[in-house]
Amino acid sequence: MKLSIALLLTAGSATAFAPSSLVHSSYSRHLNLATKSDFCKHSALCMSAAEANVAESAAIADKDTDTNATSEFPPILQELREVAMRLHTREQAPREGKAEEPKKPAEPHVPTQADYLQFLVDSYVVYVALEEIVNEVDALAPFRNSGLERTQALETDIAYMCEKFDLQRPDAGKAGSMYAAQLKNMIKSDEDVPEFMCHYYNFYFAHLAGGRMIGKQMSKLLLDGEALEFYKWGENVNGMKDTVKGQIEELAKGWNRQERDSCIDATAAAFMGGGGINGYLYGRNPH
């Protein structure tokens, strides 16, 4: 079912979370106004939850995918990109954006280490769900051990954050738990694979694109420049991306128009799922 733009842009809204008393002393909770202004101007974290994920996801659906001349359909990644770009605002995509501009907060939320830890924990439970589904569904066998998996890296980072900043590992929050459950309930048969692949593609590749920008922002703001394992894919990351994109296209060659539409129509829900988790980083989700 397609979701309205209005609902999409309000995804993940909640009361702001107060900075934790356990925040490491090297991070000041009282950034000066110039720092806050710069953070708001340049960071995707100042967007609504869904908007931030739209910006990340659409960035990775590039235009140079080869068209299969023998197919009656264009490449599936091209179709996904076209839908994603329509979910941009005019500010994000002047030529193609059609979504309404969300209301910007009067005062940007400055994330804490506790916010970031919750983001990592919720991301972890979603990646666990994605990997379990890929390992259990025969049609998804080509995507096993792709090199894009993130669960082990996130386990390392969560342990690091807890030890470094004297934080207790939280339970998965509502955003991550609900999205993981949604994914697990999505796959009942091979007919559900196209819908799932939209979520798979958007979640993995969003973190490979705009997600890396968020990682750099958080590293500077909260981790004294330390880079987390979550954002390390090795030297051949572009090769891995190209391989997975090719596998998605190969899988989609066997889909009819209805199955392709099932994949494309899941785009808004995929942005909502990922965007809800981003909400921990700018005060939209309580934890």
TrEMBL record:
Biological processes annotated in GO: heme oxidation; photosynthesis
Pfam families: Heme_oxygenase
Composition skew (Basic and acidic residues), residue ranges: 90-107
GO molecular function: heme oxygenase (decyclizing) activity; metal ion binding
UniProtKB keywords: Chloroplast, Heme, Iron, Metal-binding, Oxidoreductase, Photosynthesis, Plastid, Signal, Transit peptide
Enzyme class name: oxidoreductase
Signal peptide location: 1-16
GO cellular component terms, semicolon-separated: chloroplast
Compartment annotation: Plastid, Chloroplast
Domain of life: Eukaryota
EC number: 1.14.14.18
Region Disordered, annotated ranges: 90-110
PANTHER family: HEME OXYGENASE 1, CHLOROPLASTIC-RELATED
Name this protein carries in UniProt: Heme oxygenase
Organism listed in the record: Skeletonema marinoi
